[in-house]
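so my prof wants the structure for this chain in the tokens format not the other one, which i didnt know existed until like an hour ago. anyway here's the sequence
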Amino acid sequence: MTEITAPKSPVTAEQFADEIREQLKYSQGVTVEQATAADVYVAASKAVRNHLQDVWMDTQARTAKGETKTVAYFSAEFLMGKQLENALLNAGLTDQFDKAVEALGFEPKDIVDAEYEPGLGNGGLGRLAACYVDSLASLGVPAFGYGIQYRYGIFKQTFDENGKQVETPDYWLKNEEPWGHIDYNRDQKVSFGGEVVEENGKRVWKPAWSVRAIPVDYLVPGYKSGNVNTLRLWTARAYDEFDLLAFNRSEYMEAVKPQVAAENISKILYPEDSTKVGKELRLEQQYFFVSASLHDAIRFFYPGEDKPDLTTFADKICFQLNDTHPVIGIPELMRILIDEYDYDWDTAWSITTKAFNYTCHTLLPEALEVWPASLIGELLPRHLEIIEKISDQFKAELKGKGVDDATINDMAIYTGDAVRMAYLATYGGSYVNGVAALHSQLLKDMTLKNFSDAYPSKFTNVTNGVTPRRFIKLANPRLSDLITEGLGTDKWISDLDLLEGLEPLANDDEFVKKFAAVKQANKHAFVGFAKDHYGIDIDENTMFNTMCKRLHEYKRQSLKILAVISRYAGIKNGTINADDVLPRTVFFGAKAAPGYYLAKMTIQLINNVARVVNNDPDVKGKLAVHFLPNYNIEMAQNLIPATELDEQISQAGKEASGTGNMKFALNGALTVGTLDGANVEIRERVGAENFFLFGMNVDEVESLYATGYDPAKYYESDPRLKQAIDLVAGGTFSEGDRNAYAPLVADWLTKDWFMTLADFSSYANIQAQIEELYTHPLDWNRKALLNVARSGFFSSDRAIEDYLKDIWHTGPLA
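here's what i got, hopefully its the right format
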């Protein structure tokens, strides 16, 4: 990548301090002496934003000229993390900031800590989107991220006295938020409901109600690229927010009813959808942001034109659908082209299919969104008509290809009762990509096999990546400094392949010892972080063993906690010699969807295992368990650099890719994992000898499904597993209540769809290998260093370059 110097030279520390003083005075209305850390955070953020503003406006102007095709990344979530440090890094102002706030009498850490993490995402899908918009800007590619400005995010996670997950609102916008600029002058109208009528031979949608979509713009600065792109998030408002007549009749709730109904659309990420009302809200959210975004893109590239030539639209911008959430954008663009701009069907279809591409993030059929046709017909009646016509066209096309009727029926986009969004995305776009080599192959061989057979050229792979700016440079400054020392340059921050230069240093014992010292310092720092944030005491002289990821059965947190219970039982009953035990601290971090009963019960079990283990003097100093609440980017940036053993133990064939596995490897953790998702590629690149592999592979899993899986057989055959489950069933972790975890135990013994029990013995057995290696610190850290050196492929910059070459067919601005 060619580096481009930003057009505005960085200021001195003294000048930056003056800018903060000015913002304190004119924006915050306080003197330096009166200012709190929160005041200085807001003032410094506004000062940094001012430095980015000129570059952003220049990037916008060059983007609008259409010199190279723009990328629009459609995503229901963008898990951005705190903004100040990242903006300082990319603006080249980190050192100036540190010195400036110190000159003002504050500690830089206190100012950074005053920022509240944005509640704009939840898991890997949203973090990937955030990494990708970072890389697009850093590579100089013009791009918009499009999504929703959630007022409360998904939820803030706490635990009650019984260890149960409690969901509370995440009030991330309760104080001043200096990064998002609300632009009321570029709002869009988004409509719902009503009916479709025939007028002068044309189908005309007569909506029942509309909301105002107001853009909130976040600047996305590239690292040393001279580009600042835009993350445009939409917030919903009513056009008539207040009924004065109703208010004057003392009908106060009725007076604000339109406002409440509209604002519900952008309140919560992933509202619980087990009810019809919840499903309606989810569909409203999805349509809301894609409709506003498509109209916004047209406005941006054809400003002031009533009847622009939209046959050039797909040459100016392409839309990447991040999973199925934005797929309603395909019929929406068709509706816009046909109903609003009078294009015929074939022309509109040609434009639409060139404009859209689809990333599939799952192999689980239940995760491929299917909407009831009745619901789409109720909320978006014109779109249902368009979807039905697309579906009919698709069937005719398949028939022309010689596909048999049964297969055509299996591939139906519109079944009469339901609309299959993944199928609509696959047919309606130019490309479909998986997010790891194994995942992409399984998409073609299993999940979307019929589509791959009919349209093989549509399918490709882009293995995920993570941004090294946030997840090494910012998250792990000690390791970053050591990498720069080892390589003799910091250019690796924008070219992660340069990490290969560390490989010879794995044979240098002194450098490996420096690497080990960095890990130990990170562990020490995390002990302080955990004490400050969670009030827990952690022994830094134990192995730090981490499993942080969304709580889902296929990710198999159950496997990890059963192994922990087995270890605890072994120490207690003497089958494991306490003197030979390698001391471990096991960390969990995860949120469970509010309606996901077994996932929430698993969280409760882990918390209560932790309560028992951590209060048992027989295992003190040998084993500790902590479920850290409200896993987010801040926690990740502190925990990942401190982790020594990372758990990637999902059932083979179920994880699409993972990006946590990449972050841990890049930060010098060794991985214990299955051949699933990107684990396959990580193991190939870091070396099989530097990865702890266990469990069945995809073929073995499928074979066991086919022949009939009996989990009880595995329970009976491994005494360690039987004892662990019996302790759960017997009430050891529920104060004697044998019914507390009965549904979980019953699921393990009778269903266990993701084969936790089948892989338990293999997982338990590999622990001896892990622990033996850990007793040889030089060998352990040599392997950990090789994980860092060989993980450069997993940069989001590389992933974006793959998209540019294979899918988007565009490049950076000149």
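also thought this was worth mentioning. The first helix runs from residue 13 to 28.
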